[in-house]
Design goal:
mainly beta, eight-stranded antiparallel sheet, seven-stranded antiparallel sheet, 1 helix, about 5% helix
Length: about 300
């Protein structure tokens, strides 16, 4: 099986394995301002074609498959929807910024790898340019599925020091989301969260780990799927705390600013790297650890 790529110029890339879609990466999003327009991966599929992502679910319209989303970048929201404050909870605050595609840096396609890099300029809702970002995504097949390596280098060009935080750092307990956020399809609700400490459910929220994941059954097809997200050892605050959910909806998000703000000085660059592995089938603890090894190998 070989990899391929279809490029909708100025809009998106679709990465394929044989004649099947693995994912579409919409790099030039046109979502409403309230949803903080930003690039996203959707649909995301296993090698056999099972869907493992959701787009604009009714309860959180700003959730978009897999996306780099920051709800508290200083006073600005690059996550979408309302912003949390301790004094009045979640409220619309006219602070929904956008991650705007600027130019493609590279698109390299071979039988065993697809690499796409592009430059983005982040703007506040008021139009201020605050971040220059170089984002690189690399796709490869693995022994048990396929893996996406996600790399970001964000340079603070706002002229001010900016703290990156979460609703938890703003005062809401156990809501430390923000970063590379994946949300699964409805049928994954009440599925199993995977971690090095062992599988579980929402009690794993906020745990520190080098990787976490999710496994669940699909509707209609009588099949199952697994996703693993691995944090690079060179990332700040590795191993991070994780925002994970199962009981209300499926979600996995490594969040180095889960419970403590991360200051980004003016002019500095924050570089982070992750691996996202997608496989068919349910995973017990032993298989999850084996898949995590494959994901971490992709980071090397």
């Amino acid at each position: 099986m070989t990899l391929g790529c279809n490029h909708a110029l100025g809009r998106s890339i679709q990465v394929t394995a044989g004649d099947r879609e693995l994912f579409t990466y919409v790099y030039n999003a046109d979502d409403p301002q309230y949803e903080s327009p930003r690039p996203y991966f959707h649909p995301i599929r296993t090698l056999t074609g099972d869907l493992i992502s959701v787009y604009r679910p009714w309860d959180h319209l700003w959730h978009k498959g897999l996306a780099w989303s920051l709800p508290h970048f200083g006073q600005d929201n690059f996550w979408g929807g309302p912003t949390y404050a301790k004094e009045d909870g979640y409220q619309p605050r006219d602070n929904n910024g956008s991650q705007d595609h600027d130019r493609v840096e590279a698109l390299d396609v071979s039988d065993d790898e697809v690499r796409f890099a592009h430059h983005l300029a982040w703007h506040t809702q008021g139009g201020k340019h605050v971040v220059d970002e170089l984002r690189t995504i690399t796709t490869r097949l693995t022994d048990d599925g396929w893996v996406l390596r996600y790399e970001t280098a964000m340079t603070n060009v706002s002229g001010e020091d900016v703290p990156i935080g979460s609703p938890t750092t703003a005062g809401r307990p156990n809501a430390g989301y923000g970063g590379l956020f994946w949300r699964g399809p409805r049928c994954f609700t009440n599925g199993t969260i995977l971690s090095p400490q062992g599988s579980g459910r929402d009690e794993l929220m906020g745990q520190r780990a080098p990787w976490m994941g999710f496994t669940a059954r699909q509707d209609e097809t009588d099949t199952a799927s697994t996703i693993i997200v691995a944090d690079d050892t060179g990332n700040v605050r590795h191993p991070p705390q994780w925002f994970v959910r199962s009981e209300n909806f499926a979600a996995v998000c490594p969040a180095p600013w889960f419970s403590e703000e991360l200051p980004v000085p003016a002019g500095s660059t924050l570089a982070l790297k992750y691996a996202v592995l997608v496989a068919d089938g349910l995973s017990d603890d032993d298989r999850a650890n084996a898949l995590a090894d494959q994901a971490r190998k992709a980071l090397g």
